TrEMBL record, chain A:
GO terms for molecular function: 2 iron, 2 sulfur cluster binding; metal ion binding; oxidoreductase activity. InterPro entries: 2Fe-2S_ferredoxin-like_sf (IPR036010), 2Fe-2S_ferredoxin-type (IPR001041), Beta-grasp_dom_sf (IPR012675), Cbr1-like_FAD-bd_dom (IPR008333), FAD-bd_FR_type (IPR017927), FNR_nucleotide-bd (IPR039261), MRET (IPR050415), OxRdtase_FAD/NAD-bd (IPR001433). CDD domains: fer2 (cd00207), FNR_iron_sulfur_binding_2 (cd06216). The lineage of its organism: Bacteria, Bacillati, Actinomycetota, Actinomycetes, Pseudonocardiales. It comes from Pseudonocardia ammonioxydans. This is Ferredoxin-NADP reductase.
From TrEMBL, chain B:
PANTHER family: ACYL-COA DELTA-9-DESATURASE, DESB, FATTY ACID DESATURASE 2. InterPro entries: FA_desaturase_dom, Fatty_acid_desaturase. Residues 1-46 are annotated as: Disordered. One of its GO terms (biological process) is lipid metabolic process. Pfam families: FA_desaturase. This is Linoleoyl-CoA desaturase. One of its GO terms (cellular component) is membrane.
Amino acid sequence: MFRSAPSGRRLLAAVSRLTTPLLPEDFLTLVDPLWSTTSLRGRVVARRRETGRAVSVTIEPGRGWAGHTAGQYVGVGIDVDGVRYRRSYSLSGPEGTDHLTVTVQEVPGGVVSTKLVRDLPIGTVVELEQAGGDFTLPDPLPAKLLFVTAGSGITPVMSMLRTLDRRGTMPDAVLVHSARTPEDTIFAAELAGLAARHPSLRVVLRHTSVTGRLDPAAVDETVPDRAERTVYACGPAALLDALGDAWEGLRAERFTAPARTAEGTGGTVDLGGAPLEVGPGQSLLEAGEAAGRVMPSGCRMGICFGCVLPLREGRVRDLRTGEAHGEPGDLVQTCINSACGPARIELP
Amino acid sequence: MTAVADTPATGPAGTLGSADPEPGPEETGREQHPQRPALELVPSSRRADVAATTNLTAEQIEELGRRLDAIRDRILAERGACDAAYIRNVIGKQRALEVGGRALLFAGVLPPAWIAGTAMLSIAKILENMEIGHNVMHGQWDWMRDPKIHSSTWEWDNVSSSAEWRHSHNYMHHTYTNVVGKDRDVGYGILRLSEEQRWNPYYLGNPIYNVLLSLFFEYGVALHDLEVEKVVAGEKPLSRVWQQLKSIGRKAGRQAFKDYLAFPALAGPFFLPVLAGNLTANLVRNVWSHAVIFCGHFPTGAVQFAPEQLEDESRGEWYVRQLLGSANLDGGRYFHLMTGQLSFQIEHHLFPDLPSNRYAEIAPEVRALCAEYGLEYTSGPLWKQYLQVLGTINRLALPNGRR
Ligand SMILES: Cc1cc2nc3c(=O)[nH]c(=O)nc-3n(C[C@H](O)[C@H](O)[C@H](O)COP(=O)(O)OP(=O)(O)OC[C@H]3O[C@@H](n4cnc5c(N)ncnc54)[C@H](O)[C@@H]3O)c2cc1C
Ligand code: FES
């Protein structure tokens, strides 16, 4: 609340002598949970249904929110059945709005997405992290752009298009977006409207129920000058893998971790407190969270380094490669490393 | 437990020490400080009682263990949004009470405001220490993964620091419950609460020490973490004690500054009523928590154990020791809340990490299991249990007193 002003910080320090061992915010947040001075929070102020299984959620952030660049994602912490879960969601709204918007598509059996899509009362307070990620447009803009998206992968690109639309500087751009059916296409109407308003924007909507899955060849067919365009892609891992293999210089945003190749042996890890059994193929992050530890995290798939903790003893196994690695003092990514035998990791 | 009956009677202190990985006081060859109420042990006269109370076969004990595990598993599976709402509600109400109490004390020159403010602040401090702090620091709410309500971050409104307390309480007391010489809550290193502690003239003061401990309980708890007798015995380096003392000093300093200087000073001309109110609230909290905690383990019926009990103890035997070493308090819903559900001391000791709001629900099941296996389920009203504890303390002041 007093984040910026130094006099505010001094006041806060003085008041905390009165609230010790608690912080002033522990009382302030009883009045408004967003008045936290140590962590960023937001309140759900609106929900809009996009498709049968996707909703856009608009969140009013606390005063510390620094805004986002189109294409970035935000870390969201939310309680499901009393337990706090942390996930990342790309911001789908344009840059420069007071409130932030994410668009979530339900993953079958998914803990957080199901909650967000089906049962999220207005007024729910969530934990937020500042926006992050470098899936963003450069300045100056490339002369020619191509966006290839599928399913919920449209969200970061939607933020880019909405931002360009607001600025009135739509470059030569093509969007090839694939969804299961017309009804299942997030933002279908708005995309059609954007294309109608901006002659330089071409939107190609495809439906897997009609034309099958999107692949590099299909895109090349629709976009003959593809090789001249700077390509941004976001969608299921299989699509991104195929595009990455076929084309040079692709910029991709992944929502899901690449398949875990390695299982390994697991092991007992000391995070302070009672020792933790990490199962074969289980990440340190998953094992810690299952035991009720508050673990730092971000993308949960090895990209953002929001989960690193110092290794003190032993080694860990990278679940992507199966390789055992690590020296005491190394910062290890807990989201994509498992145990291999006993190890000690420092959790602050 | 049957193993207990088979083991030979407890030897003198020296024998105990050698069975222990840590060298006992005697082995260090140093002279005991004459004033120290050392945890010096004499042969137990109670082994027969223990065996008699638990006339169970090893199979029966393990079966009981499995049935208790089933209760625990059921609560773990049910734990959810309602439990989370409970603790958040208690925390919200407690903070509102604290703010309200302190605000009323600013008008403390008016006697009704002083009385109401002091009462509210006392209740707030008791709730904070008992239902919230104690239970959060046990990790009962860690499953929520809320960094604000987590054992790794909670600091309570008490002079002992959370980190030290978690070691002496969660580890030493809950692991070695009522094992004389291991569980430092047996007498807090000051009182004689067991015949197995060898009498010396120091203990003539037992009743007085108890009154003092009750009034200054938070300091007693903080200092009992120091384990001074281990230093005397040369088992603990002075540097570690110095480090702990500095930590206690810092925490105590912040607490005292808040209650005895800052808030009274803010009240300007009404400095004294606010000071008196804060002091009273701290004393009320001390006396209350001391009473509740002593009634949890030391009334007649709660059994104490010798250190060999710990050797090769099975899960079932552990449960039985926790059952027999604890005693419940009878009362209504708000009474249980004010004790931090430690009125369900038995359930708390069986399942120290289950959310406290669930103890009331499982208590009848635990009681029924005890009846089925012929184990004593000690329970009684606070006044009665407390009188028994006082009786024990008075009797043990004398060399031939019995518990
Ligand atoms: C940078 C980034 C941005 C993201 N942006 C968005 C976004 O804008 N909109 C959006 O809806 N999601 C987005 N996600 C995905 C989101 O973070 C969650 O992973 C997703 O909502 C599933 O979480 P869950 O708790 O419901 O599923 P979990 O309970 O964690 O998983 C349930 C099962 O579903 C599988 N699974 C997990 N995620 C997916 C997925 N995306 N597709 C298919 N299967 C999956 C898991 O492997 C598991 O087997 C983003 C992820 C990242 C890393
Ligand atoms: S959570 Fe992003 S790298 Fe681990």
